[in-house]
Structure formats: structure tokens, C-alpha cells
Design brief:
Shape: elongated
Structural class: mainly alpha
Number of strands: 0
Distance between the termini: 63 Å
């Protein structure tokens, strides 16, 4: 029972929010938080559709990936989210490095 509730909560987060929100953090720095949340939900649905097309578009991909099953969707969404999170972390690290060199050049 508790496992099913956790699966529903994390499933909704990963299918309707997290991947798209990470994309908005990477691409749209100038938006407000509420705009990022709304756009993140829309982009998450787009990512879900793209993942579904990838997993079951034709017979070859269906045989290769096993089709659209819960395990494959979980693996795909978590992998996509981790990739976007790593890109976001690298982007933040580069911003800190650039800020450091800007401050350093001002004092020269």
C-alpha cells in the first residue's frame, strides 16, 4: 500500500514536473518561478510524449526496448532527469568560475 502511494507520488513528479523544470532551469534563467513551474509542466509532458514515441514507435524499437512498460518509462525519465540535472550543475559551476574571473579582472 505505501509502496503504491510512493510510486504514484514519484511517478507524477517525474512524469509531470521534474524533467521539464530542469530544462527551464537550464534554458530560461530570466523567468520567474511560477513561469518556470508552468513551462516545466508543459515541457515534461512533451518529454513524456517523446519518450513514448522512442520506446514504441515501430516494431524494431518495440522489440529492442521492450515497448512502453512501467520499468522502461521509469528508466527513461530518471535517466533524462539525471542528464538535465548534471547539465544544470555544470552550468552553475561555469557561472561561478566566470564570476570569479570577472571579479579578478576588475581588481587588476
Amino acid at each position: 500500500m505505501i509502496l503504491q502511494i510512493n510510486q504514484i507520488i514519484f511517478g507524477l513528479l517525474f512524469s509531470l514536473f521534474i524533467p521539464g523544470f530542469l530544462v527551464t532551469l537550464i534554458l530560461f534563467k530570466e523567468l520567474d518561478l511560477i513561469e518556470k513551474i508552468g513551462l516545466g509542466m508543459v515541457l515534461s509532458i512533451c518529454i513524456d510524449i517523446a519518450l513514448g514515441l522512442f520506446l514504441g514507435y515501430n516494431e524494431y524499437m518495440k522489440n529492442l526496448t521492450g515497448g512502453i512498460i512501467a520499468r522502461n518509462i521509469w528508466i527513461g525519465l530518471v535517466t533524462i532527469s539525471l542528464i538535465f540535472f548534471i547539465v544544470y550543475l555544470f552550468q552553475k559551476r561555469l557561472e561561478k568560475v566566470n564570476d570569479f574571473f570577472e571579479i579578478r579582472q576588475r581588481f587588476r
